[in-house]
Fold each of these.
Amino acid sequence: MTLIEQLTVLLGAGAVLTAEDDVAGFTEDWRGRYRGPAACVVMPSSTAQVAAVVRLCVEHGVPVLPQGGNTSLCGGAVPGTDGVAPVIVNLARMRRVRTVDAANNSIEVEAGCVLAAVQEAAAAQGRLYPISLGAEGSCQIGGTIATNAGGTGVLRYGNTRDNVLGLEVVLPDGTVWDGLYTLRKNNTGLDLKHLFIGAEGTMGIVTAATLKLHPLPTSHAIAWVAPRSPAAALQLLGLFQSACGASLSAFEMIDANQLRIVTEQLPSRRNPLSALHPWHVLIELSDTGAEDALQTILEQVLTQAAEQDLLLDGVLATSGAQRAAMWEIRHSVSEANKKAGVGLTTDSAVPVSSVPAFIDRATAAVHAIVPGLPIVIVAHLGDGNVHFIPFFTYAEWEAVADPEAMAQRIRHSVNDVAHSLHGTFSAEHGVGRTLLNEMAHYKSPVELGLMRRMKQAIDPQNLFNPGRLVPDAPSAPAH
Amino acid sequence: MTLIEQLTVLLGAGAVLTAEDDVAGFTEDWRGRYRGPAACVVMPSSTAQVAAVVRLCVEHGVPVLPQGGNTSLCGGAVPGTDGVAPVIVNLARMRRVRTVDAANNSIEVEAGCVLAAVQEAAAAQGRLYPISLGAEGSCQIGGTIATNAGGTGVLRYGNTRDNVLGLEVVLPDGTVWDGLYTLRKNNTGLDLKHLFIGAEGTMGIVTAATLKLHPLPTSHAIAWVAPRSPAAALQLLGLFQSACGASLSAFEMIDANQLRIVTEQLPSRRNPLSALHPWHVLIELSDTGAEDALQTILEQVLTQAAEQDLLLDGVLATSGAQRAAMWEIRHSVSEANKKAGVGLTTDSAVPVSSVPAFIDRATAAVHAIVPGLPIVIVAHLGDGNVHFIPFFTYAEWEAVADPEAMAQRIRHSVNDVAHSLHGTFSAEHGVGRTLLNEMAHYKSPVELGLMRRMKQAIDPQNLFNPGRLVPDAPSAPAH
């Protein structure tokens, strides 16, 4: 029997997609930038089925491509155009919330659960699953684990990695590792889950996870302020961290260009302040106590900041509607930018203390390539994560002779600046296929060598999402 | 030249100890339970020296035993009595605080820094390094990383693993991995630091680390209460988590036997309550804001708990001296227990929700072996981590026919109960050599297999702390 026949016997015809129309949604990424052929798409319903699928693929020597909600920004979850066409293992049918243990602040879910469904199951028990990002209505929890997703809650709660207690993984040899621990402390050997978190499907298929929950914050206070400069914004961050500790839950900065694009492209969004200042910061405090107390601290710290001359202007949200409107601006940046033109998004992180230097130097580096090019900036400032976006109108972009080369050159110049400040070229989006060159360029041979040794130890046949995450070793020079 | 001669040329005679008197403090653990011979003890002063030492040991095929402050509870850091005597690499001379970046909330330190010195360097900049444990005055930061140390701050700040941003490691082949990142977000391939954290020196030598700092709490509120039962204590924990979120910084439970031992053995310690209730909980709130606010919340929640009939009694500390006295009881348990008799300490963790069931069942299991044996309990309740300590007087223990077998049988019965509740036999103390049998017994073959593959990939010659952490694979059956 062929592999597809065997898969059909195993899963039933409805769970093995081969017709071009049926697989089209799985073989192309959501932004339409990448596509490649697949042997088929399978939709298993259980961990045992995933394991059986993997064993068949191994027998046939066919690559396996784990896929969640297909919301990757780096082309990590759709097939390439070279090599053997993979079997795409889509986890959408494995979407059960297995258990919520409120007293233990933990939840066990299958990998195909949509992130928002996990948040809802937690909230139903008065708990918070704190990972929150634009794609939360469609990305799957397995994908967020495979990519160590970040988002707007990292400042307080950490990345996805920090919120995973345990995993169930089908390994590349088809065995199942049941590592579904729900413990806060467990010092019994290597903490194996970290081999799979952020591995982008190269080390096996995550089929289920146990996750940390937190008390659900019941009160919020939000302000929208205009700091004098990124350096002033950093001083403001320091004041909030000293005064509020862990109740500081967001500190998001955008520049004037970004705010202008949002308000122009989406007219229902309005600048909360009366002038378009150069920098804007959304500050959120969240806690489980009384709302008045948060509002008071927020006012106190902003008064202190004004006394230190850090602010040009600022306003506190006084209603839920105002709070929502402020967050809506922040959440609209991708949609607005897509309407406005071509943004060469980057995803740098640097030490928080180096953000002002990064912005200055990256701007200079880009302007050395295209003088005066507008820069759009969206920063998770509290994490040192800056989406620094050199921005072209569609008309300008069409006039560029070699757009691919221009995009690479500009992005690389930004990544160079981040690297020189001990930063990184991928803070939260991952590597996928887009950033393999940067991996080869910036990572030390020792570090790449360690990653290759791990891959070789877990997937010696190199069948799991081959050619992603870690670039192949340079070939030995010919004799 | 012999290895020792080569090491002496490399490091100078003062940094290579061979005389029996000189090495005695390094070849025996602090409790005097384990000792074994060493080829020598070397005390390198730099990462380059450590790397050169490793290369020499590899050349000679001599095992390498990394050693920090030698405060392991599991015999993980002193030589065994079989196999080739290792070179002990003691990091005490590498104790520089390299940099503190207050704005980035990070610190870079060498591995030999004593934990308390790291805390002090952070505090000098208004920051907190939150790992805190009994041995903090002598354990080294490298050792806390190699063992993923826990302690009393885990409830709020996580384990050591959660507070490491990056590492510098001399690998078993003598190359140096510079992974001293200071970033909050960095999704560029596998997060390699987790291969070394908690690896107990089996995967290389940590020579430096970058660590997360936190705002230094400036206000504290502490209460000492007597809940009706462990189940009532859990309900109380839930009330505090809902009301205080992240400002809950400790929730430590001891039983009447433990409190009695402390107050009897160390007469300066006094029971904060007027009666010896069956269970006692120390609750601490810490924050960066005003002390009054914390005290108010603490009172409110305790009032709520009293209304729900969860408490037999309770008292709030009203001065710094009272707070210190309450913590002193908690910190005196090891010293007092050592004076009082032989405690068969265990280090279980279970899901927080299962702690009451664990205590009941473990008590029954031990009493099935020794009817009526007193049990001493010290629990980091908020983490589900229970030190469940069956307790013999010295006289009783001397009457036990085969003490080694008795200790094993009793501990194993406790570990069985933890395992049946999806718990672990080592929450924070690690594995070392003491718990290798339990590793072999409780861990799945898949999990042990993955750990062995990692070890094989990083240390194929098995020279780094051999025979620790992961038990050898069972030999194949003879044909």
Amino acid sequence: MSVAAAIGEEGRTDARRSIALDLLEKRFGNRFSRGAEVRRQHANTTNWLPNQPPDAVVFAQSTAEVAEIVRLCHDHRVPVIPFGTGTSLEAHVNAPFGGVSIDLSGMNRILAVHAEDLDATVEAGVTRTQLNAAVRDSGLFFPIDPGADASLGGMAATRASGTNAVRYGTMRENVVSLTAVMADGTIVRTASRAKKSSAGYDLTRLLVGSEGTLGVITELTLRLQGLPEAIAAGVCAFPSIEAACNAVILTIQSGIPVARIELVDALQIRAANAFSKLDLPEAPHLFVEFHGSHASVAEQAEAFGAIAAEFEAGTFVSATRPEDRTKLWQARHDAYFAALGLRPGSSMIATDVCVPISRLAECVGETRADLDAEGFIAPIVGHVGDGNFHVSLLIDRDSHDEVERAEAFLGRLNDRAIAMEGTCTGEHGIGQGKRKFMLREHGAALGPMRAIKAALDPLGIMNPGKILPEA
Amino acid sequence: MSVAAAIGEEGRTDARRSIALDLLEKRFGNRFSRGAEVRRQHANTTNWLPNQPPDAVVFAQSTAEVAEIVRLCHDHRVPVIPFGTGTSLEAHVNAPFGGVSIDLSGMNRILAVHAEDLDATVEAGVTRTQLNAAVRDSGLFFPIDPGADASLGGMAATRASGTNAVRYGTMRENVVSLTAVMADGTIVRTASRAKKSSAGYDLTRLLVGSEGTLGVITELTLRLQGLPEAIAAGVCAFPSIEAACNAVILTIQSGIPVARIELVDALQIRAANAFSKLDLPEAPHLFVEFHGSHASVAEQAEAFGAIAAEFEAGTFVSATRPEDRTKLWQARHDAYFAALGLRPGSSMIATDVCVPISRLAECVGETRADLDAEGFIAPIVGHVGDGNFHVSLLIDRDSHDEVERAEAFLGRLNDRAIAMEGTCTGEHGIGQGKRKFMLREHGAALGPMRAIKAALDPLGIMNPGKILPEA
């Protein structure tokens, strides 16, 4: 039986669901809402996938409350959809079978900061900037930065990463332990606070990236890093995407512990020049950042500069003062709005794939040719140290033809990445949007994934219609 | 139904099992053995837990062969126990319900080295030193070093780590993807070769540490590191365990990217002085190693030396030439044989726990007091940057009293670690020996673990009697 069938479209109006919603309303009072606008805001709002609102939204304030809600939904066969900030990009928060959206944004307490252990325990609704503000005085920071100021629970659920991942890893590497409410309302703690363990199945990593389909993450213990003594930033232009990628490969092979290394393609540079009044050459650029001691970042910058020169880069400009670094990175920081400026009034479809770094130049090159052949305006930016890149398709959502051609392009993009031993998503997740690529990417491994889903959520109430394609 | 009950003790002699063994013998000829000595060697030989041999051993040479064996065992309800080098410490390779040991040591081909991507794909029987020899000419190395020259499949299955983990992580962080044979003989590839992915459940991390209870790992794609340009090693004595631990905490908080930082307690130093003819002061020592550029390792060593001085360490001696580094680290390298020398003729029980680093001094201190009160000779060595430490109990295995008191001590040690927000094992795994601590450590999280086991191995044939305690 498919997950969707277990819930059943007809379930939306059945008597049990009405009873459950009434019980929740009675229990949570003004923290329960059936308002159309609240429901709409709790479904997908970030791309062209339809907005599919839940039947109701409950604003939870504790793990115990989440457990209470899930247990009630379990007993009445009502879908449960966890909601953090709603910034995910593949419609993870949609409710295609209705159900109850659990808004965790009120669970925003920082429960403990263990500076000596370099970890902090937070509620799932705490955002990354909130955590960083709370730990800065201890000389610490949390490195994962997916762009949006997302909730940490949501970042764990979608296995988020971003520009710093090349040095500090993704949410996969930076979650020590989770508290989660499982499908029957049981509260589990996935691991101790030890930095490593060989004690049993890695439930932490199983829940990280599970997008609410196995349990609702309510608390997280996260690894923190010491704030670097010094930061150096730099930028330089390359004659080609390939040259830039080869410079990245050599940088990483040489053991330069680069903290960020971002590729920005020529079209995005053109956008940045227009938007931010810059005069960078319209060529692929690498934006880099180094963390360490003063001597170390100087050495790293020098070593990187030498590698860039080997690949015929333009002048490598670097800086260490915060204001100078911000200026150097402006074209990267402004990428989103600058890109929109390339086609005023258009909508951006942000997508990502990830390939082994040896295939990156080829994958980006073929993708650029594909986009150009279709006449799409679509800059490319990449977390190139990880082989991960983003295409920002600027389309007219009202044009049936453009939408259709964009969807066909996305199909080719994902097939291309998978064929190059890569993945259909490096950091955005599957949600609804990428379910169709799961079989191609995973083949027989979909079997164990389905078995795990069925075992941990036999009624199929946990964020149904996400990750796993229909059988 | 418990895993054990699913197989059933009586199953050992049932007709189906005989048929399966005969079929395997016919199929694999002289790569199949029922010889008593071969069977004994394929069961536990590393500690006091009983040697429980399988019914037969098959020496597999390919993933397809492993799939064939597992499918046949599945169809005839015969337990399957994967075997690499047999060096695990918690009786992971024992066959308490009989069955077929699949010896993977013949699967020792290095299938691909992708130097540009910093990864290599190997068969499960390849050992870590074999991999390192194969990639050295590419300027690369594989950092995980659990001491024994274990097979990489076994290291993944037990989530091994070792001295380098503080900088490079454990097998959890260093496996990119696995090929595994699941309980019904299906071959799955858990992930692509992309460095990161958000595409579905993390089957890689689920199989890492699953000790053969969910599937047989047959191939691995592993992350490699660039060989550092320079290595510096160092050593210094501290007035107390607490001072040494505090120096470690400050080292890590300061962002010094230490590659190794090992605690060796006073008793182990005494053993080393005797065994290796050294004259180190009989006090807790830290052994450190730094990787990086020549300038960087010099800077790291200097920064560490300053921190050590803050905590009243003795003179910090460091060196960069290989022969000098080996000499400096001799007391650490010889730890095993030196410890045995403390009580000639005794047997060593090697055990490990792991706690948050802030609790390490307390945990080691209480453990030392406990050992002394019992009159045990038992040096302590720790991967202290991770909060992980080892106790090497030297006992007379023939003394019922000593064995009993040692078991009671192990119970207290594990309870102590768990009570300090730690884990009953940082890197040895659960196997048979630590199943009794699983409930205390994981509580309600045992439920999802059992559900996953039942879903992926409904017949309970995969390495039964390991990890999960009887229900």
Amino acid sequence: MQLLKDKIRTSAKITDNRIIQVDNFLNHQLDIALFNEIGKEFKRRFSAKEITKIVTIETSGIAIASITAQYFNNVPVVFAKKHAGLNMNKDVYEAKVFSYTKNQEYLIKISKDYLTPNDKVLIIDDFLASGSALLGLYSLLAQSGAEIAGVGIVIEKTFQEGRKLIEEKGLHLESLAIIDSLQDGQVIFKE
Amino acid sequence: MQLLKDKIRTSAKITDNRIIQVDNFLNHQLDIALFNEIGKEFKRRFSAKEITKIVTIETSGIAIASITAQYFNNVPVVFAKKHAGLNMNKDVYEAKVFSYTKNQEYLIKISKDYLTPNDKVLIIDDFLASGSALLGLYSLLAQSGAEIAGVGIVIEKTFQEGRKLIEEKGLHLESLAIIDSLQDGQVIFKE
């Protein structure tokens, strides 16, 4: 997706030749016009699929998933909680996820009320790198019996093992910008 | 806002005569069609104001703020982080917030890159009850020198002190559903 790649080239900060920080438009300040173009592109790539629900994970996936849902007939968005409040229903699906950007393990949770075996789910997230968050979501969805119709990612880094782990599960994965290398602070996209 | 009140009546769960749980459409599963109506209503109520940015706070404000921004010419959304990652810029505005639903104090943060004295900010959040989260956002914005053009809240509970604290700051506050009482598990809206 050219618009997204251009935005990454002009706005992302690279550190340590492997970390790409996109707080400027994706993870802290949110570029809503760009998110609409991202939503349209996910619809184009998953147009053949019947989708009844979009599932994502706290925090950065929520805005992208919500804008994207508008292009899928306003299907409900459900986000897995990393920091459940005291008011949360106790009857939940849960899975462990390790966050490298926070160097911490989380228990992520989705209430059993919001996933059923009848759901056909599009998973949306901002990043695919190690794949840990996506495998956690995969586990929650497998517990619920819902069907995973596809996985839509905004930015994928090919030099970590995420794609391999997702493809091993037989999932249809679409990433809008695929980064092969961040060596020397340069973003090299996969052709 | 009648559509919202109807949704609260049919879908909210009341506990302890003071806690209203709206995970079904606002805090865990997200009703995107309703969020669009909420966004339109905020635009109607703040139509006289010039807005350059929408500011909210992790987690439940993010989706509402993002959908609402579409009705304000796609202005950027910035969310205060409760759980900053290791990659976050260290040059931040910060404030303490106490969360009653998590019984925990947080340090909330916004990068100085994303708030300037030229910004005219609409604050959006899901709930106003004790007012702690809003006072934290007020502090971040005061530190930045940005102007607060208004505060838009989805659900306000009048039997806690939030409104008083916000109005003492001289802010223009608009709440789309105002709840006077949850006694006996019944939702009584302010007329």
Amino acid sequence: MAEEAAQEQPSPTAPRPVRCIVKLGGAAITNKGELESINEESLRSACAQLRQAMSESDGDGAPGKVLGMDWSRRHGDPADPAVDAERIAGMAGLGFDTNFIVVHGAGSFGHFQASRSGVHKGGLHSTLVKAGFVATRISVTSLNQEIVRALAREGIPSVGMSPFACGWSTKQRKLASADASQIIQSLHAGFVPVLHGDAVLDELLDCTILSGDVIIRHLSQLLSPKYVVFLTDVHGVYDRPPTDPNAVLLREIEVDDNGSWSIVKPALLQGNNKGVAAHDTTGGMETKILEAAVIARLGIDVYITKAGTEHSQRALKGDVSTDSEDWLGTIIRSSK
Amino acid sequence: MAEEAAQEQPSPTAPRPVRCIVKLGGAAITNKGELESINEESLRSACAQLRQAMSESDGDGAPGKVLGMDWSRRHGDPADPAVDAERIAGMAGLGFDTNFIVVHGAGSFGHFQASRSGVHKGGLHSTLVKAGFVATRISVTSLNQEIVRALAREGIPSVGMSPFACGWSTKQRKLASADASQIIQSLHAGFVPVLHGDAVLDELLDCTILSGDVIIRHLSQLLSPKYVVFLTDVHGVYDRPPTDPNAVLLREIEVDDNGSWSIVKPALLQGNNKGVAAHDTTGGMETKILEAAVIARLGIDVYITKAGTEHSQRALKGDVSTDSEDWLGTIIRSSK
């Protein structure tokens, strides 16, 4: 009996396996056209779906009252937050599998400051780059703060962790130092780390921008999540810009051991994978596939889908397979 | 010539000596009676004085136009920030000695969330403590964000660094892990790290609160600043609560090698150092002296004074000596 109990209790030193790393795409959670503007409805919906995915029940039971963990005042709200400490103290637990990591993009935060100053090019001797570094961090960390708060309002025990403050740095734009021990400690303590693309120090260039996608790739290599979900503002990866009426959604992409990828579904596009890059004038999708391919090669399924839909809800639960005809999105997986 | 030039350029590995660690006391920068309310005027004034202290000139020359580094929108401000990138790019440099570290208290941020949940007592198995941990961090990091922005608006290249995200942790409330390498890297790159009292993980208790004063003590031991300044809402340390009309400001306190301290000025209180603790019903001042005494024993002068006064301006510049009859505040120094 004692042994059984010991087995059920995870050892304090062995990290629990991470279930899912979620990318909240900048395009999905901010209004791209407007400087530093959050898409409140999309963010709220993504957080609610994440909570649902974490819930141990399949969502058939009546959802309990959400235990909000943002006890701060909101801007313009004159009332102090109400906290029913007695009720919360009496709760048996969260009833969640909180073993998720959230990474978000910048969207309409940070880009203005970074592009005006050229932070990604480095050179901190330049006053403009130094000021831009500070301004970029202020902008992306203020978005991080709002996302942590939105998650906390949905009862998700989220903790903001800025890569710069965590000591993450690059060398010639490639990740050089990226200690994840505090992320692992936080997961182990039952918190959901929330990271973001950030301005970081670079050994050769002085500084640069570290993207959320690179963070996800690194954490996937390190922590082997069961699956990775990219939430964006379109249904997945298309063979050309999704605004093109002839654009075709790529349903399934297979990645070989050597990293080359091919379109499995729809069948008509098979053998035509060069077509994506040629059509992709927005420049984002080829990069997205290549980043996702690195993760898929590790044997981790990657789901790219539209935030705030039934498809994102299923992806966050890991309830997607290559046989799911009614699931709208792109699966990127290993050919093995 | 080459050798001279090499000597002028600090080596990339050797950290520059830190000039000053500044504590922005919670009482000085927030409105204590009102939940999560910043004392904007006091904060602005503290940031302006800090900038003045960093300036290489003695402030005799006309101050240049401030290079604001907060390019984010402010709440309720409909206009996009104006950034004159060309002018900034043409600037020769900041003309600052940025080798400062800022640590701030919580004031009316964080205390409500921490005390309602008992985060300092630990026990993350309790839903209340877990929620309170998240809520406390949201509150203190939102204050940190506002302080970083206020410093950046004054042209100080500030970067927020949360102790929790930096991986700082405690064991039975005593600092157990507190790697300062990212703080040193940031200083070396010309940034001003801005830390704060935070909720952190504790090896034995699960979690607790790490105070700003403990952070300052640790950083002083590690980085040997020339002097340490505590900015607060009263003129310094008194022999009894400063609201008492008979309260006497302690002008100079001497700390022995063994850590015991004695009042040097005013002379009438000499030999009466037990009196402070007896009178100090607020409980804060005895702790403050003890924390400061640890720093003073290292041979580092500690100045405790009122924010937003000519006395704080002089303290931030390090322009205070035990002969300064016209300086209002408390000097805590080693007897050696």
